[in-house]
Amino acid sequence: MLQEVNKQESEEHNKNLVRDLLQNSYYRQTNAVNTKGKTDLAIYAGLEDKNNHVLDAYDFGTENMDVETSLVHREAKSIINASVLGLIFEKINGYKDGAFFTPSFITEYICHQTLRQSVVDKFNEAYSWNCVSFDDLREKTDYGKRDERVKANAIVNSLKICDPAVKSGHFLVSALNGLIAMKSELGILQDCSEVPRRIKDYEVKVEDDELLVVDEDGNFFRYESVSPQSQLIQKTLFEEKRTIIEYCLFGVDLNPKSVEICRLRLWIELLKNAYYVTLEDGLKVFQTLPNIDINIKCGDSLVAKFPVRMGKSIFLDGRTNLGKLIGEYKRIVNDYKHSNDKSLKNSINQRLTKIKGKIRQEAQLELFEDNSTVLEGKDTYKNSLEWMMEFPEVLSNEGVFEGFDIIVGNPPYIHLEEIEKMSVLYGKMKKLDVNNRQCRLYETYDARGDIYTLFVERGFQLLKARGHLSYIMPDKWLKVKYGREVRSLFLRKNLTDLIDFGDNQIFDDATTYTCIIRATNEESKGNIAVSSIRIVNQSGLSDDVEAAKEGFKTDCLDSDIWVVSSCMAWKLAERLKRTIAKGMRKELDRCREKNFSLNLFCIDIERLMQR
Fold first, then answer.
1. In this protein, which residues make up the domain named Type II methyltransferase M.TaqI-like (predicted)?
2. Which pLDDT does position 43 carry in this prediction?
3. Which residue ranges form the domains of the chain, and what is each CATH number?
C-alpha cells in the first residue's frame, strides 16, 4: 500500500511538522507504549526522523477520488483520507454502541442541503430579504464591496452546528468543508491579509466529501512556501478552518474513544493546510495547531441534571453579577483555545473547573429536584452532559441558552431493552413546560423502542427557533408501534423532507433500512416532500431526490402507520384500511343484532379497530 516517499521533500519541513504535531494537545495527552504494552517509550533522538517518514508515506487526501484527480497526486503518496480514521474506529468499536460508519456521500448530502438552507435563513434575517433558495441568495450577495464581504463572512461564521452523537466526526468534517466551499460559491471568500481581498483566482469546492482548490485552468492548488501567493492561500484556508472549527462546530459522544478520534480528524483537516511562520531568529516552523478539543465533549447527550430550556437561563432572576460571571467563562474558554503553552493550558483548565463550579452554585437547582433525584447515582450522573452550561458559545451574555442553528448526525441504533438501566433513566427524566410544570422529558420514549427516537426529540430541544435538524436513521418509526409518538412529533414540527431508501443498504456492514429526515424547528407547514429512492446513485443523490419528490399533506396523516413509498401506495393503503374497518363494523353489528353470546369477541374486535 505504501509507495516510495518523494526524496526531494525537505527534511527540515518534515522535522518541523512532526515537532509541531508532538506539541499539539492531542499528542501531549497520548502515552507511547511498546508492543508488549508494558512500559512507556521515551522520546529519543531521531524519533522525529522516524515519525516523519511514517507521516510522509501517506496523503491525508480523498476517500474515493482516484489518483489522477487527487489534490496532491503529484507527490505519488498512498491515499489515506482523514475519514479512514473514523472508518477504522467504527468498524472496531461501533457495533457495541450502535454506531455505524456513515458513507461520505450521505454526510456530504445532508450537510450540503442543511447548511445552505440555514445560511439562506441567516441572510434573510440579517438583511430582511426573502430569498427562498441558495441560488436566490447568490444573486443578491454583493461581493464587490469589502465591508459587505466582511459582514457576509460574519453571518456565515455565526452558525452553530452540533452533532449530538458525533462518533468519528464525519458530519463535522463535511460541515467544515461545506461552509468554506459555500463562501467561495457566494463570492465572499477572502484572504487573511490586513486588507482582505476576494479570492477570485481559485475555486474552492467539495467533491467526494473533500475540499478542493483549483484555478481557472483546472489545476489543483499546491502549497509552496517560497511563493507569497501560495503562502497567502494556504494561510487563508488554515485560518478559515480554524475559525469554523473553534466557533461553529460542536460535538458530543458517550464513547471517549470516539471523542478522541473526532478531535484528531479535525486536527488533520487543519494539518492539510498547515503553513510556515517565520520566527524572530529567522527559523521557519509550522503554525501551531489550536486547542480545538474543548468543542468536542464526552458525555451522554440524552442525560442532563439541568433540563434544556430554550430561551431560558439556569440562573435565578435578579443576579447582579451574572453578566460578569458569563463573560469570564467565555474569556477563559477563548484563552484555552488559543493557548500554546502546556503549563498555561493546565492553569486555564483549573480556571475552567473553578468557574463551572461557581455557575453550578448560582444555578436554579431547586427547579430540578426530580432530575437531581433521578441522577443521584454516581454511575448515571458522571456521564451527563449539561447543555445549559457546557457550550458558552450558545449562551447569551446573561446566561440564556440560545441553542444551535443546525443539528445533524447519525444517531445510534440501540434497542432500549438492551440498555435497561439507562432506558429506565430516560423514561424517568423530567423537564419544565411553558408553565414551569414538570413533565416527561422524552414524549417519544417507549421501553420497547429504539434510542434513535430520543435523539430526534433531543435534537429539537437543542435547536433554536427555525433551526434545522437532519439525520440519517432507521425507517422503522414509519410503521411500528413505538414510532407513534415520533410520527406525532413530526406532524407538529415542520418535517420538510423525508428520503426513504427502501430496501437499499446504505451501510456496508449492517442490514439496516434507513431514511433521511430534514425538519425545521417550527410548526408544521402542512406538507412533507417525500422521495422514495429505488436505486442509490451516490454521485447523483441530489438529482434523484428531486426527481422522486412527491408532496404529502400532513392533514391526511395521523400517528398511525405511514405508507410513504408513493402517493398511490398511500391512497391504496388508506382505501384498504377503510374497507376493512367498514367490513368489520358490519359483521360486528350482525353479531349484536342476532344477540349471539359473543361479548368477548365483540370487545376484541372493538379493540382491534381502535388500534
1. 248-507
2. 37
3. 302-314+363-384+386-565 (3.40.50), 577-610 (no CATH)
